[in-house]
């Protein structure tokens, strides 16, 4: 495994980094020696998270629905740390209802954050990643392959994110940039208003995705695991 000393001078930007998977990934990257920027729409949350994560981590308020704000966040990261090596595209939201009942605002919110926000983030980060090679992780979902009732917006956003990720691999592989889609099933996070508890012990934990991210970064340069599906190993019996 790459040591923290070997990662000195490397940096990562994690969207949606104030809690859950984004927070765990930022914590793991900082522990591995990366300098990290985390983003969130909520100023109080992002500053608290950055303060807890330590001196290697800076927090930036950024709404990924705003392409200009995303560009400023990436530019600020590059200015602060001299470059960009890892981009973890994690910001996401879910609204669930059948199509007849889903509002236009709910549809737009999910697509604008989960899909357009990912595009804005990646587009802003590519020039810096090209300068020294790097890695893009897109946090998708098993819902990007498996539709479910009431999941019109969420399924569409994750199916789209998977397609975007696959095209990115083709567009960027000759520039020394790897792209991996991470597609988890049930994760113990605050997603959808859920409050993690002991009852979630069977679920994937945010730190499991963080460990997977470090493991992928340690893969030989010649090898690209382009799509990783992650499931709880022992879900409750139905």
TrEMBL record:
Q: Does the keyword Oxidoreductase apply?
A: yes
Which Gene3D superfamilies does the protein's record reference?
NAD(P)-binding Rossmann-like Domain
Q: Which GO molecular function annotation, any one, does this entry have?
A: oxidoreductase activity
Provide the alphabetized UniProt keywords. Oxidoreductase
Q: Where is the Ketoreductase domain?
A: 10-194
Q: Which family does it belong to?
A: Belongs to the short-chain dehydrogenases/reductases (SDR) family.
Q: Which NCBIfam families does the UniProt entry name for this protein?
A: PRK07326.1
The protein depicted here goes by the name Short-chain dehydrogenase
